[in-house]
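EI: anyone free to look at a 389-residue chain?
SC: sure, send it
EI:
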Amino acid sequence: MVANLDADAMSDTIGTIYAAAREPTLWPQAIERLRVQFDGSRACILRTGFDPHTLHSFVSPGEFDRIAMALEDLFDSYRVLESRMTVVPLGLVYSDMALHGPETLRASRFWKEWMAPRDMYGGLCCRLVARGNCSWIFDVQRGLRQDPFDRTETRLVGLLAPHLVRAMEMSDALAAGRAAGQTLDALDVGLLTVEADLSIRSANRAAEALLAEPGSPLLRRANRLAAGAGRTDGRAAEALRRAVAEACPGRGGPLPGPGHDIVFEGAGGAEGALVVSVAPLGSLDGEGRSFERLALLALRRASQAPAAGFEAQMRLAFDLSPKEAWLMTRLAAGLSLKDIAEEGGIALSTVRSYLEAVFVKTNTRRQGQLVSLAKSLEPAWGRFTGGQS
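SC: here you go
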């Protein structure tokens, strides 16, 4: 038997590869499809340079656990072979017998105890991707009673290899995107992507919750952002429309400058108000042009009080004592020294001594300067992480 060179079969194999790029659980099916395409006895995409206790490989269905255990037991023998595999140029298709030499390969414990029992008597390999000290290598094997691979089949591996590389890159990019989405969902700040007409393209959980709150000054209406309940007189809504229009660049046009902050007052005025930050969002080409008319909106509740965890962050940032961090937090909340003394049930002179110590540790000299410093640190720690370190 030889590889299936039929155009439809090739198209189906490539389609299976890209399906696996979108859905990682389909990689074993894609590898099995490649094995069938080449009429092989075994096939895999193996990661080299790994710790055998944390194996990450794509193998034929049912093989993962077995190869993990085998490589752990046969790791020393395998590592000798691996040292040659990792220096082969990327994209070069080679025979494992030619690379290692038939006598060397078949004398190895790895071949005797792993390859031969699984009818792996001659393979075509291609080093696809290299990252750091790791490489990913496609390997398809033929059995003892099968014909060796010929030049046509070698060229076929070379034709399929770029598709495997691209699919693996796509798979990594999609995984990173999913991880980023999970991270954004974990944030307390609401994040939205919108089009120039305020149509909502995406929203994280915090944004959905803020827009759905009863009495929210901003809401989702027919999948668009719209002013809701509250004392906003329309100027904020118009400012948001203009800011989003500016942040959404024309197709092929340059990105605009810095974004905008807009306050939508709640029913109680400043109490319950939403602050909306607007910034451009788009994919850039090599000349800095955007091809997506999107803007990124960050929604957060306006609050005079520092976010939860702010006091602990001040302690870490400036090596403050608990009392000093408490003082800095209360100043950031707008309290006077007299108010702080009364709240803490301590003498005003004691509060002033705390303040002097904080001045030294923060390299500030005036109370207003200290409050400004505290407020400038809050967005990174409190506004966008909910006060979690």
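EI: The first helix runs from residue 7 to 22.
SC: 👍
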